[in-house]
Amino acid sequence: WSLVFGCIVLFMGRFLLAFTTSHSVVAVCLYFLIPFGQAFGIPVLTIGIRRYTDQKSRPVAFSWFYVVMNLAALLASPSVDIIRAAVGEKCSPIPAFNLPCFSAYRILMLVGCIATLINLFIAWFFLRDISMHSASGQAQHFQPVQDSPFQILKEAIRSKRFWKFVAVVLLLTGVRLIYRHMDATFPKYMLRQFGPEAPFGTILGINPFCVIVLVPIVAAFSSHIRAFRMILVGALISGLSPVFLLLGPHYWNAILWVVVLSVGEAIWSPRLYEYSAVIAPRGKEGTYLTLSSVPLFLAPVIVGGMSGEILSNNCPARYQCNSFNLWLPVVLVSVSSPVLLLAFAPCLESDIVDSKHETLREDDDGLGAEPLFDMQTSSDSDADAFDIAAAPGTGKGSASRRVRPVSSLGAA
């Protein structure tokens, strides 16, 4: 139901943006409705992938999850150029909505509305709260932890693993800022440097195309490598990628930037999604994933002011851009992530886990073992239940518990 709620809110925000002429409504959509709806998107989907997979299939599932996201981006980027080319700067008034101008950007918002409605339909009719049992591969009903938000946050704060997780996420903020510059800085730079015909959407579309091709290959050859090392190497490659933009205003420099950025992204980003999901105690993934998304929402705030400042100083008008001075601050900020990760690696690497090594684990705070599956006591005569040994450290000895499999999953 979190996905359903998020899709409804997101649809409202995009629909209002497509038709409103009020600055106040635009502000409500941009600062409340759309961010609120997006907050119920990627984090909730990530939790769902963890629950819909077992230990063996999880790395592949997260890789394909990332591939699908980039496939959507691959289709979206050229569509910007296509719609802009078809509509141009022309505006068609719509008297029924009191709109003096229905521009290409309003059409893009409507496309987003249609996509959101499709997501809402799938979430409403085809998804269920289940969890996969790793040993048997069978599905079972899942009930999230019902503790109060304060209690869940209190337990998380007491865990050393949680703080190491937060540190890794925050140190990656510098690399994440690059992707906001792709939205806020790069299009304006291209239009002012090369003119209104600059195909910045097509160039940015190289990123999801490369990621779609590279992620399955990287996943196949690197599943045995520790997640932290993959994150560190990928962040270093992505962090250095804007160096190509320092070399001058040429299309090939922009293309090389996007290609190298994509290579690094294919290495570190899927492993970070996987790590964020598996490090959280079962049933409390939402707390970890919500906090891991904080840098994503801080990034637009940071980049917004930074982008405006460097553009006004180094690319104020058409054909008056200083590429080196414009992109140097971006390079310095992005490189800070791998440098800091490398500096703190001895402290951070020890608790980075891979999903294939995920077991019934004890919290670092001494609160006891956190079972990976919902369990309920059952008699030995239950023929439709299978045994799971009690979690170590619970004092249950060799006692068994029973987990009832779900007989029918439905479509997912």
Key traits:
412 residues; mainly alpha; two-stranded antiparallel ribbon; 6 strands; 63% helix; globular
**What is the rounded Rg?**
24 Å
- Number of helices, counting only DSSP H or I runs of 4 residues or more: 17
Mean pLDDT: 74
Strand count, sense and barrel status of the largest sheet are:
2 strands, antiparallel
Strand content: under 5%
Broad shape: globular
Structural class: mainly alpha
How are strands sequenced across the largest beta sheet? 1-2
**Which consecutive residue ranges, at least 5 long each, have pLDDT under 50?**
352-412
Distance between the termini: 14 Å
Count of individual beta strands: 6
Residues in helix, % = 55-70%
Instruction: List SSEs in N-to-C order.
Output: HHHHHEEHHHHHHHHHHHHEEEE
Describe the structure.
- By secondary structure, the protein is mainly α.
- Helix content is 63%, strand content 4%.
- The protein contains 17 helices and 6 strands.
- The strands form 3 sheets. It has a two-stranded antiparallel sheet with strand order 1-2.
- A hairpin with a 6-residue loop joins strand 1 and strand 2.
- Helix 8 crosses helix 15.
- The longest helix is centred in the first third of the chain and has 30 residues.
- The C terminus is likely disordered.
